[in-house]
Specification:
Blueprint: H1 8-15, H2 19-25, E1 27-31, H3 33-41, E2 45-50, E3 60-62, H4 65-71, E4 80-85, E5 97-101, H5 107-119, E6 124-127, H6 137-143, E7 152-154, H7 157-166, E8 170-174, E9 180-181, E10 191-195, H8 204-209, E11 212-215, H9 226-236
Parallel strand pairs: 2-3, 5-6, 5-10, 6-7, 8-10, 8-11, 9-11
Antiparallel strand pairs: 1-4, 2-4
Length: 240
């Protein structure tokens, strides 16, 4: 059992709480029984970390509870965590439903959108390089494990839109300006929708590359939270 946070392996694991080391090592952390189980199903676990006196199928580090408290993100952590390998995917232009995310910054919003996209049967999410880190702990927790099931890739959105256009995928931006109401459009075989930054929305260059622009009619308030808006759009345009 490891009892000191000065242990070299523990020091490396603790570095994974910072994005620059997650990028450098191509690894990230998950915490709790549910997320560890979802990571196991996806075959992503490199090392399991636990305070339990039990045997697990993965390479396992048994640590003291005080060490676990230092590694964990929560104040009262569950007795299991895992070091996981990042999943690298590319754009698959032969699918039916896509969600493009332009510079989202709130971890909770990103995690909720990933979870909603999985629940509503969308095929892939494409994130701009400027978006919040996919492997931020708050993102992972908000996905409730959907991170391990939802195909995701990160790339320049203008490049992604160009590739989608080559396959005949219609791309729909979301905006409060120079847009038509969501009910104006009917579900098509292949569709992609762009959601924008929480404060600025979809950037003009990306909107200009879209085929159409839509908005959700609302009353009493100026705009919706991007995760809520995304769920409405995805629900409104199911696969056909």
């Amino acid at each position: 059992m490891i009892t000191s946070i000065q242990n070299e392996t523990i020091k490396k694991i603790m570095k994974l709480k910072q994005k620059k080391y997650r990028d450098e090592y191509d690894l990230f952390l998950v915490e709790g029984f549910h997320l560890v189980e979802e990571a196991r199903k996806a075959g992503c676990i490199q090392t399991l970390i636990t305070t339990l006196d039990e045997t697990f199928p993965e390479d396992t580090l048994h640590v003291h509870s005080k060490v676990m408290e230092k590694i964990a993100f929560t104040k009262t952590p569950q007795p299991v965590m895992a070091v996981c390998k990042k999943q690298h995917q590319t754009l698959d232009t032969w699918k039916e439903r896509y969600l493009l995310l332009d510079n989202l910054q709130d971890p909770g919003n990103l995690g909720t959108i990933i979870r909603s996209a999985l629940a509503l049967g969308y095929d892939q999410i494409i994130m701009s390089p400027e978006s919040v880190d996919l492997y931020n702990d708050k993102v992972i927790r908000a996905t409730q494990g959907a991170l391990f099931q939802m195909p995701l890739c990160q790339m320049d959105l203008l490049e992604a839109i160009a590739l989608l256009h080559k396959q005949g995928v219609g791309v729909y931006g979301t905006s409060l300006h120079q847009a038509l109401p969501i009910d104006h459009y009917q579900p098509q075989k292949q569709m992609a929708f762009v959601l924008g930054n929480e404060g600025q929305g979809v950037c003009q260059a990306v909107l200009d590359a879209c085929d159409h622009t839509l908005y959700i009619p609302i009353q009493g308030i100026e705009s919706l939270n991007v995760a809520i808006a995304g769920a409405i759009v995805m629900y409104h345009f199911p696969k056909i």
